[in-house]
Predict the structure.
Amino acid sequence: MTRESAPPKIKVLLLTGQSNQWHNWKVSSRALEASVSADGMFEVDTLVTPDAGEDFSEFAPAWSDYDVVLLDYEGDVWPRETQRAFEAFVSGGGGLVAFHAADNAFPDWPAFNEMIGVGGWGGRGEDAGPKVRWRKGKMVLDDGPGVAMHPDPFEFLVETCAPDHPVMRGLPEAWLHAIDEQYSQLRGPAKNLTVLATAIAGPEIENGTSENEPMLMAIDYGKGRVFHTTLGHVGANDTETPAAMKCAGFLETLFRGLEWAATGEVTRAVPDDFPGTEFPEVRA
Ligand SMILES: [Zn+2]
């Protein structure tokens, strides 16, 4: 009998350091670092950018040292040279996971908008591209009016749209997510985009769109893979990890997204505590 050695860990660069006025990267990045490190599949380096308004001229991460970049950042624009290096990393086969408000970042960087598929805020208007809708079992691009918004946080069902995608394989058709913001009416180029899961805020919810809004997405960018999770809001004044980021459904889809973005495959089993539709499963 041979004893197989453990597979090498997936190398994750957690890139953080600035939030817009609605978020707190210190709390969200601490939670991401802790949960992704503790999972066992990943080795995480955290890189904190300069503060808002500080000098970014030396900001040039060693992208190629990593399998996947986990982006928890919405702030100052990077130098063009750094943007180009990042574009080359992802288009050359690197992985990117865009976490929640990372899709608020860089509205005027066309390549970034292609990577995330759709985004919101930060000045993104109706000219940012169509909204992504899921109607009658397929994706529809909607050029109608409206820009990014969300109802007040609530518990909502996340529904699988692409059960055969590696990230979603084996997961339930629907599961109840812990209280969170439900991003709505995100807009962007939406090229090479697969809707993995949606959620809906019906007429009983104030500011609900009654549309199946994309919550989890997969985007091909050149040879690279991007997993975009809109879940995981941490408010500007939050000091503790919110339930949204301790939700077993949020965490397992994040881990699967990281593995898939890094390798193109998902080898993970569905955890016993993955939520069903009755109540959310919030980890300690
Ligand atoms: Zn948020």
Notes: The mean pLDDT is 97. The domain at 10-263 is CATH 3.40.50.880 (Rossmann fold).
